[in-house]
Amino acid sequence: MKPKLIVCVKQRSQTSDSCAGRGSLALADQLQQGIRKKGLNIDLEKVHCLGECHQGPNMRLAPGGEFFHGVEAKDIAMIIDKAGDFFIKNPP
Ligand code: FES
User: Fold this and answer.
1) How many domains does the chain have?
2) Which residues does ligand 1 sit against, CB inside 6 Å?
């Protein structure tokens, strides 16, 4: 399985207790741009819930990689660096 970064983009109406309600769509765009800029061969997959809704925005490296909770824009560079390391350790 090719390594990927999974980002929850679930939006619930009338509550902020969802990842998109806390800005995950914009974060996914920033991550995608950063991955492209670095030339990393990692797919970004948008999913609708990772089961940790109260801690969002949530994302994780797959298969079997690190989980990131409460992600903010300041975390983007760190996550991209970790994604690059993850790819080296888990080639397709
Ligand atoms: S809404 Fe994102 S983990 Fe459930």
Assistant:
1) 1
2) 8, 10, 18-19, 49-53, 56, 58
